[in-house]
Amino acid sequence: MKAIIQDAAAIGSLRPLNIIGYLRSHGWVKYSEVASKFSVWEHDQFPDSEIVVPLRREASDFVQRLGDVLKELSSAESRSQFDILKDLLNSGFDVIRLGVISPNTSSGTVRIDDGVRLFEQAREMVLAAACSAVRPRAVFHSRKPQQALDYMHGARLGQTEHGSFVLSVLSPVAPQLNPYSETSLFPDEPFERQVVKTLAIGVQTTVRAAEQSVLATEDNFRPFQDGISLGVSANLCEGIIGLFRFGDQASISLSVAWAQNRPTPEAVPSQTIITSDVIPTITEAVRIFRARDALDDYQISGPVVKLERAEGQEAGRVTIYASIEGMPRKVNVTLLPVEYAQATRAHEEYKSVKLIGTVVREGRSYRVNNPTGFGFATDDDE
Question: Where are any strands of DSSP class E within the chain?
Fold first, then answer.
């Protein structure tokens, strides 16, 4: 005998639109409705079943009717009401699952510190995918695209699951209103769906790039470089690496269960297994990504700590102690005579300077190319 859900709060948390999306994706067809009150659905494979979906939450029998939906679906699909309820609740979400495969997590539990880090790295991976969905780049800096940040505010953590230790992220996605998908007129999917696709493809591409680079006879970094347009970035790689910085897990599983209120995407991996074997290669890829990175139109502000000018030369090299991406760094810049004189004065008077340019890494320090707007800094610039 299958258990019957009687928790009114749990049943009442269902959304009619999510139920309708679920029914459509499972082959149910609407054959009758009373506008703004309810709709009736049938299925060729279940001729004895009829699903009545209430639409008005304020109706006195709303929760009762939702309970009837659970009973009918449970009977038709020969599944428990608990499984049906879970699928209906998640039908409006793309569900991302990160599973830790390790002897220490076979009980479905994990050490507290390891669990916290797992959640943190999952966030970094999803955020990296959101940034790539806005605009693919090799490296994303501290100022992330606003659209990506807005997405992160809408994504939710789901309940952890058994199967070793499984963390779930729920990514809300709007239902498709037209069942026939006018792709020629409206080709773009919701941004939320694009993020999850970018994550799934980006992780798979990163793992494949690591495997391919080991076998490459020349330009071993090319597979990672080619993967940028598919969601590979230093940030995503760092998130993957972070999953293996604790515990003794042999592998991590990333899988996606697609929302049932839209068609399932094509040519997108549903699961990727990441083993510890590829982590050293991915770590080296991050180093190269970061070494080749440039910060365009970046403002530098700080005290002058070193002045260098060869005898007989007009231009001189200045070292500024400035914050780069929140970390104090030594930044070198070559200045023309007038600006070099200003830098000398700033050094003598213990004043800070400012400028804007393209910042690139130079060994353990940084260099500014194409500097503009050099001058004394104000309190607002620091």
Answer: 29-34, 38-42, 51-54, 93-101, 156-157, 161-162, 165-172, 251-257, 271-275, 294-308, 316-324, 327-335, 352-362, 365-376
